[in-house]
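Hello Y.,

Per our agreement to keep a running log of every chain we model this quarter, I'm adding this entry. I've kept the format consistent with earlier entries: sequence first, then predicted structure.
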Amino acid sequence: MIQSVKSVPAFDNKQQYAVIEAEVSAAVLEVLSSGRYIGGPVIDGFEQAFAAYHGVSNCIACNSGTDALYLALRALDIGAGDEVITTAFTFIATSEVISAVGAKPVFVDIDANTYNLNLQQVEAAITPNTKAIIPVHLFGQPVDMTGLMEIASSHKIVVIEDCAQSTGATWNEQKVGSIGHIGAFSFYPTKNLGGCGDGGAITTNDPEIAQRMRVIKNHGQTNQYYYNEVGVNSRLDSIQAVILQIKLKYLDDWNTKRKTIASRYHQFLSKVPGIIIPQELPGGASVWNQYTIRILDNQREIVRKKLQDMGVNTMIYYPMPLHLQPVYKDLGYKEGQLPVCEQLSKEVTSLPMFPELSSEQQDQVIYSIKEVMSLNSTLRTQHSAFNTQD
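Predicted structure for the entry above:
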């Protein structure tokens, strides 16, 4: 039993930094003293290391995960009149970039157990205007890439993997970001490979696409001060690159620790009444960027408040699916069109998850959920019995 209430954060990167502080500080100071803060050998070194980690031939570092998706769409000449299929249950960056290039986001529903794309709905949504599919490996959980690539291949559609939350996750032992035509990554600090600021990267085995993205991300320059197209400024700075290259060495160990924590959550929460735990597909290996449960019977806010009172902090990803967001009202989606997305947005809660989460903290999370859900179950049973009395 938990004897005292201590606060368990939903996420904490301070402990991780403490372990690598000396290494990071020395590397950052070396970059600062070099005077080379944009481009150069530090960026080249990170790109080579990240490409090698994923088993691809090209990595293009950029300013953010959002830019990674945007650059991919730009390099494929996707724009006005085109459609891109994606999930409605994700952060808006995934669809935002589709809108930014002038194309139309086409939202489909998800699987209730994995929170990822429903592949049957993906295929049903394909039209002559469909130019790409963006699967999101949500919460670190890989999409069924075998099935998705079969669909894409049969319709000659490009696949851009959104790997923002899933660096190191695998499908059939192949890393996400190396299976589709392009992979897009975010290094926002809360990601399982997070920097000390914004950052992103793109992976691909297509040298022409890679070169096009390199041009677009640097103002469209083919040679210095010569431009063939309108580009953007989306460069990863050398300080972020050197930090990420250090962290990349530790990533597999950190991901293993996340998997161990997820296994404990599985073990002790799988039979707790009133919740549903996430499930991995056969062939998929999640890196558990989040561990997201479903709290049933409209009890989420009550349960989260009680957990907070017991020192357990949680997060909601995401409280409203994208197809119902005001920004997309012109697309004409109505409530009820994507029922799984809509239901899960009312139920999902992400538990504390980071590699340094101690056994004591894990125990507190598990104990607190069991206590809260057991009490809720008892109260609901008593309430039901009272209401059925004559």
